[in-house]
Automatic annotation (TrEMBL):
Its EC number is 2.7.7.4. GO terms for biological process: sulfate assimilation via adenylyl sulfate reduction; sulfate assimilation, phosphoadenylyl sulfate reduction by phosphoadenylyl-sulfate reductase (thioredoxin). Residues 7-164 form the ATP-sulfurylase PUA-like domain. It catalyses: adenosine 5'-phosphosulfate + ATP = 3'-phosphoadenylyl sulfate + ADP + H(+); sulfate + ATP + H(+) = adenosine 5'-phosphosulfate + diphosphate. GO terms for molecular function: adenylylsulfate kinase activity; ATP binding; sulfate adenylyltransferase (ATP) activity. PANTHER family: SULFATE ADENYLYLTRANSFERASE. This is Sulfate adenylyltransferase. Residues 395-547 form the APS kinase domain. It comes from the Bacteria.
Length: 570
């Protein structure tokens, strides 16, 4: 059973870790239990559940709690709870499970984490969940996208007993759980603690905001960098934690404690703000900072905000008495260049000059190798970010040539390959369609499914090369837009992605017919040939479009080299 300590949300602090004897017993019975392999998000949830960050939850939600949370933002017991914490499984897996049964919870490699006693199994109501939790069904919202495109069709709910927490090898000393953090406060003699949760490196405005909050609340500070899942495109947590560690040095001594929070953010704005305040309560905070656009999912399809920037603050403040955590709200922090100080936007007299750079602005500047002004962040942070994201001339990149067979992809790729070797400043790898099909993908055919697997493999190899600052030149047909978009996402997290649509029209490709494939396709000797009886979806926004009909290979390659030079890569 859950072991309770004092003062957490909805009761005592939950601890779902079992002792050694119970662990031994559970390990024995799991031999005969079906396995459920947890996703990255489930693993994050399990860790927070097990250590009491989600108190009073004692397992993944059952259906009645799920529905109550969607409808009323409460558990069926009446306790305030903003977002579903559910364990999702595929429809196939759900068929082999039933209520009343126990299952072994394992990490993706099969390592045993715990046991769940299933009380409920039900189909996810994606439409309703999206509308109630996120206020939208627009899949450009990362939380909604996860719900519709990555999460399983069914949920299983019930109590869990945890044998082992997910293993982390990084920043071990900085991973404190609620009970440990509370012990640290005791040791330091802290009565009042203001929590600050962040998915960004801490820059000057956030630092100033925490200092103001500490003064205002007469409290010490708990910094919780989120190291579970944050917004796609964020700096990875290694970089963020290194930055936060530097900034921690700037606080008065013994005035802050830092712990890494293994939370999978939902990015639901106001509902996330409530969840975060509840987590802070469970980590023993008396106060919690909710700043401008808290837990923001980014912009929607038309470039607007999903939630008004002040909504999170209002919702959190509206429930602060019930949670038992005082909300310290902040408007956007802006810099006053003449005064050389930071102020919350609502504290600035009309007509005063202000400037600001958001975390996203800074990220963009770093990636483009532009300067970051001194007032915006700390020199150690800039150094850390630039080390992780050197200017384009020291980043890796991928040139991804896509187009019909015979369009000229391989030929251009070969010219580029020689040119890069001639320069000799980065390792270069040529991933031509033919070479890949012979080596990496020899078992694949030309069905839609296999083409996608083939192209994703190329993308994976190219992303590893790009991550390690090399140049990857890829030249597959890659006929499907979604697949190309997926690859772009992976590679852009590490360096440059230059999509080149080699748009030579089919008549010209067919005229060239170097391998005699078009003739065979037209004669019906081969079927499913791209451009003849198989689709090619043209890239909608490639970096370059090159029709080789009236160009030499060297001229075509030159266009790409000029583009790369213009963007600072060479
Ligand atoms: N059905 C069918 N459709 C298209 N292409 C075919 C097919 N069968 C064989 N080939 C030859 O395979 C080369 C394309 O392979 P890719 O790996 O680039 O294709 S894909 O990206 O996986 O769609 C391509 O080579 P390139 O001409 O160099 O592009 C073709 O010659
Ligand atoms: N400007 C050009 N760039 C690339 N290839 C060209 C160009 N002009 C003519 N070609 C010819 O087009 C043919 C098909 O090129 P290839 O690189 O094999 O295409 P793909 O790899 O797209 O199937 C080759 O014979 C190549 O010499």
């Amino acid at each position: 059973m859950a072991d309770m300590q004092a003062e957490a949300h909805g009761g005592g602090l939950v601890n779902l870790m079992v002792d050694e004897d119970r662990a031994g017993l559970l390990k024995d019975i799991t031999m005969n239990l079906p396995d459920v392999n947890l996703s990255e998000r489930n693993m994050c949830d399990l860790e927070v559940l097990a250590t009491g960050g989600f108190s009073p939850l004692e397992g993944f939600m059952v259906r009645a709690d799920y529905e109550a949370v969607l409808d009323r933002m409460r558990l069926q017991s009446g306790v305030l709870w903003p977002v579903p914490i559910c364990l999702d499984v595929s429809a196939g897996q759900a068929q082999n499970l039933e209520a009343g049964q126990s299952v072994a919870l394992r990490d993706p490699e099969g390592f045993l984490l715990g046991v769940m006693h299933i009380e409920d199994l039900w189909p996810a109501d994606r439409q309703k969940e999206a509308e109630m939790v996120y206020g939208t069904t627009d899949t450009s919202h990362p939380g909604v996208d996860y719900l519709f495109n990555r999460s399983g069709d069914y949920y299983i709910g019930g109590g869990i007993e945890v044998i082992s927490l997910p293993i982390h090898f990084d920043f071990k000393q900085m991973r404190l759980y609620p009970a440990e953090v509370r012990r640290a406060y005791e040791k330091l003699g802290w009565q009042r603690v203001v929590g600050f949760q962040t998915r960004n490196p801490i820059h000057r405005p956030q630092f100033e905001m925490t200092i103001k909050a500490m003064r205002q609340a007469r409290a010490n500070l708990l910094i919780m960098p989120v190291v579970g899942m944050t917004r796609p495109g964020d700096f990875d947590h290694f970089i963020r934690v290194r930055c936060c560690r530097h900034v921690a040095e700037h606080y008065p001594s013994d005035s802050q404690v830092m712990t890494l929070l293994p939370l999978a953010m939902r990015l639901s704005g106001p509902r996330d703000a409530l969840l975060d305040a509840i987590i802070a309560k469970n980590y023993g905070c008396t106060h919690f900072i909710v700043g401008h656009d808290h837990a923001s999912p980014g912009r929607n399809r038309s470039g607007g905000l999903f939630y008004p920037a002040e909504r999170s603050r209002q919702v959190a403040a509206g429930h602060s008495a019930e949670i038992g955590v005082e909300i310290v709200p902040f408007e956007e922090m802006v810099y006053l260049p003449f005064e050389d100080e930071y102020r919350s936007k609502d504290q600035v007299a009309p007509g005063t000059d202000t400037i600001s750079l958001s975390g996203s602005d800074i990220r963009q500047r770093v990636r483009e190798g532009r300067k970051i002004p001194e007032w915006a962040t700390f020199p150690e942070v800039v150094k850390e970010l630039q080390r992780a994201y050197p200017p384009p001339e020291r980043q890796g990149f991928t040139v991804f040539l896509t187009g019909l067979s015979g369009a000229g992809k391989s030929t251009i790729a070969k010219v580029l390959y020689s040119k890069f070797l001639e320069r000799g400043d980065r390792p270069v790898t040529l991933l031509d369609g033919d070479i890949v099909r012979r080596n990496l993908s020899s078992e694949l055919n030309f069905s839609k499914e296999h083409r996608n697997i083939n192209v994703l493999r190329i993308g994976f190899v190219a992303s590893e090369i790009t991550k390690n600052r090399g140049v990857a030149i890829c030249a597959p047909i890659a006929p499907y837009e979604v697949t190309r978009r997926e690859i772009r996402g992976t590679i852009e997290a590490y360096g440059g992605f230059i999509e080149v649509h080699v748009s030579t029209p089919i008549d010209e490709c067919e005229k060239r017919d170097r391998k005699g494939m078009y003739a065979k396709a037209r004669a019906g000797l081969i079927s499913g040939f791209t451009g003849v009886d198989d689709p090619y979806e043209e890239p909608s926004r490639p970096e370059l479009r090159i029709d080789t009909t009236d160009l030499t290979p060297a001229e075509a390659a030159q266009e790409i080299l000029l583009f790369l030079s213009n963007k600072g890569f060479i």
